[in-house]
């Protein structure tokens, strides 16, 4: 062509290609019939890959409601640009293309994030299928059906792979990876739900004291990824940030949701027992929050009924959803219960050894 009009100098393919058609009439630059024919014969979707569908499906990836770091990692996987052993071997950057963790296969992108036995263990515990689809179709299906769980698992599988290679003396057990993935999934769900509910005041990532004469209960539960034990904690503080009472322990269950509900119920009971008549209960689990506050669920868990009942006793109660970063004290105490195998304990003041960890 003779020249490109200045109005067309920054155009991209997606600006003149949509819904499977070229829109050449929007161009200001003159095109010869031969050039038009060459352009019209080119199909960007087919060139991008017949199974994924091309730019349209990649656009779906970027519209996922997850942090940019998760989407960028997924994009690297789909472009097969992840620096795996196979990737580095093809470029003369490594002497072997073998997976250094299982030593049985080439470390392609698909092997690294799905087919390696260590990766499959994590996906199995997250209930994500490792059905032998090709890389792009597997990504497309899982990211659409289970976005928060899938992107959390992907992120931590890649993280643990790098840790195993570059930090040989401090490898992570599978239980830790599963716990981290489940925690990330919970956080992604919370962020999405808080934004959907348009509650900007709850998006602060730090703890705020309650108003005068009001006490705040922070509840949380944690699951280490194995066994049938869930650890929980509920902490009560006043407007001066003074520690009033705490309860922590372990319940027999493999459901993190049961642990969250138990922590809420136990926190309310603890506040009632010490005579506090104006309380705010805060927690960071969207599922538990919805179960307690909404009535459009078929089966109602007995713990939910107990929580609803205690909220209608003769006192003033409030129930709010918060970010995980604003719930670090109860999270730390719940993990301490598991570490020390405490079946049940009530505290009048924080343990001295935990003051720094809880930032008190």
TrEMBL record:
<dbReference type="GO" id="GO:0004523">
    <property type="term" value="F:RNA-DNA hybrid ribonuclease activity"/>
</dbReference>
<dbReference type="InterPro" id="IPR002156">
    <property type="entry name" value="RNaseH_domain"/>
</dbReference>
<dbReference type="InterPro" id="IPR012337">
    <property type="entry name" value="RNaseH-like_sf"/>
</dbReference>
<dbReference type="GO" id="GO:0003676">
    <property type="term" value="F:nucleic acid binding"/>
</dbReference>
<protein>
    <submittedName>
        <fullName>Uncharacterized protein LOC107495413</fullName>
    </submittedName>
</protein>
<feature type="domain" description="RNase H type-1">
    <location>
        <begin position="218"/>
        <end position="337"/>
    </location>
</feature>
<dbReference type="InterPro" id="IPR036397">
    <property type="entry name" value="RNaseH_sf"/>
</dbReference>
<dbReference type="Pfam" id="PF13966">
    <property type="entry name" value="zf-RVT"/>
</dbReference>
<dbReference type="InterPro" id="IPR026960">
    <property type="entry name" value="RVT-Znf"/>
</dbReference>
<dbReference type="InterPro" id="IPR053151">
    <property type="entry name" value="RNase_H-like"/>
</dbReference>
<dbReference type="InterPro" id="IPR044730">
    <property type="entry name" value="RNase_H-like_dom_plant"/>
</dbReference>
<feature type="domain" description="Reverse transcriptase zinc-binding">
    <location>
        <begin position="58"/>
        <end position="123"/>
    </location>
</feature>
<dbReference type="Pfam" id="PF13456">
    <property type="entry name" value="RVT_3"/>
</dbReference>
């Amino acid at each position: 062509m003779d020249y490109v009009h200045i109005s067309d100098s920054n155009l991209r393919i997606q600006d003149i290609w949509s819904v499977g058609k070229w829109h050449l009439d929007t161009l200001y630059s003159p095109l010869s019939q031969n050039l038009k024919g060459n352009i019209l014969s080119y199909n960007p979707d087919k060139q991008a890959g017949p199974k994924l569908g091309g730019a349209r499906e990649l656009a779906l990836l970027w519209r996922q409601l997850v942090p940019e770091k998760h989407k960028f990692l997924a994009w690297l996987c789909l472009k097969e640009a992840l620096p795996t052993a196979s990737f580095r071997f093809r470029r003369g950057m490594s002497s072997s293309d073998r997976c250094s963790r299982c030593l049985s296969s080439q470390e392609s992108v698909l092997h690294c994030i799905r087919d390696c036995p260590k990766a499959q263990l994590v996906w199995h515990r997250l209930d994500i299928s490792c059905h032998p689809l090709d890389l792009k179709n597997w990504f497309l299906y899982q990211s659409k059906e289970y976005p928060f769980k899938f992107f959390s698992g992907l992120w931590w599988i890649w993280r643990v792979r790098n840790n195993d290679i570059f930090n040989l003396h401090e490898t992570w057990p599978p239980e830790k990876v599963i716990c981290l993935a489940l925690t990330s999934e919970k956080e992604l769900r919370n962020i999405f739900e808080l934004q959907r509910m348009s509650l900007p005041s709850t998006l602060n990532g730090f703890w705020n004291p309650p108003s005068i004469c009001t006490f705040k209960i922070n509840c949380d539960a944690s699951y280490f990824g194995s066994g049938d034990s869930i650890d929980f904690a509920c902490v009560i503080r006043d407007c001066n940030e003074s520690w009033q009472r705490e309860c922590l322990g372990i319940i027999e269950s493999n459901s993190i949701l049961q642990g969250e509900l138990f922590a809420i119920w136990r926190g309310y009971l603890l506040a009632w027992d010490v005579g506090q008549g104006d309380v705010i209960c805060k927690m960071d689990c969207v599922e538990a929050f919805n179960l307690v506050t909404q009535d459009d669920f078929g089966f109602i868990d007995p713990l939910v009924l107990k929580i609803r009942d205690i909220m209608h006793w003769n006192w003033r109660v409030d129930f709010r959803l918060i970010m995980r970063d604003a719930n670090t004290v109860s999270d730390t105490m719940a993990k301490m219960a598991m570490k020390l195998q405490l079946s049940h304990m009530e505290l009048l003041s924080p343990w001295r050894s935990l003051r720094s960890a809880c930032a008190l």
